[in-house]
Amino acid sequence: MLRIHFTSEDIGRVRVAAGPVPAWEMLLSLHVLRGRADHGVFEPWRAGALGCLDASSRPLLALAPPKGYSPDFLTPCDTDVESGVEAVRSTPRARLRKDITLLAGPGAAAGGLRPLADGDVGALGRLGEAMRTYHDRALAPVWDRLHTVISAERAARAADLLDGGVERLLSRLHPLVRWQAPVLSVAYPVRRDLRLGGRGLLLVPSYFCWARPIALRDAELEPVLVYPANRGLERLVEPAGDSRGDGLARLLGATRAAVLEEIATTGGVTGTDVARRLRISPASASEHATVLRHTGLITSHRTANTVLHMPTPLGRAVLDRRTLTPRLR
């Protein structure tokens, strides 16, 4: 069990990552790719991505075993690939040596990982290039799909925050996470206590995090909790080849689909206006908006006595008929 201890100051410093974090998706997708478990929904991707690994991948694979510890320095929380790669290449020598020793034992400095543990510029350059190549070959082909799922997850968490504050956000984060103030308990293979001490907590929803939430090993680093994004949100985007109107009507119901389209078309509208334009009752419009908000398709913002509904990226993706079917190069 991982127990994350909050202070009142930490409650105000809970954040959700601004988008997918490439370094975490690299590491966790490698766990999926190299593990023996049947990962179900990932199998089509896995079958194609296995061919992406070659000799150029070795510097990255050496740091990402199928299970167990991987170095904390390998997963900076930058939300673009190049910034993440540069953060890894700029890792201080003391951090490199500490993390690599945890990974491979004291003998690592005398083995194949010694140049990296010593901060050798060439070794760090090869690692950075391996990260870029793996992302381009294995992740870029499914990045739109991944981004849509993470955007939907962020929208759902934003709705929780607006509806019930940080406590609701934490209590609905994941089935393996339990919030009982001031402690967030996470099902974990080892017993650990992480005291935030006013630093706050960065929540990172991940597409390839499939089993349970994950935290960094070193409690002195910026506190991060990576957790599986709600994969059920993928089903909210209709299959390729389906007509938008028919697909939405079957998925949401004709009236609810019309409410979503009305909200997206105007870019921001009140429930009263939706009811008037669609000739439905205000109560019905409010009920449909509530369901759309809870599934991450819209957000609602109150100003004085007015509630304004706006589409989320997932809501727009549904209406734009964006497919989630990946094609590997």
Automatic annotation (TrEMBL):
The lineage of its organism: Bacteria, Bacillati, Actinomycetota, Actinomycetes, Kitasatosporales. It comes from Streptomyces liangshanensis. Coiled coil: none annotated. Transmembrane segments: none annotated. PANTHER family: ARSENICAL RESISTANCE OPERON REPRESSOR ARSR-RELATED (PTHR43132), HTH-TYPE TRANSCRIPTIONAL REGULATOR KMTR (PTHR43132:SF8). It comes from the Bacteria. This is Winged helix-turn-helix transcriptional regulator.
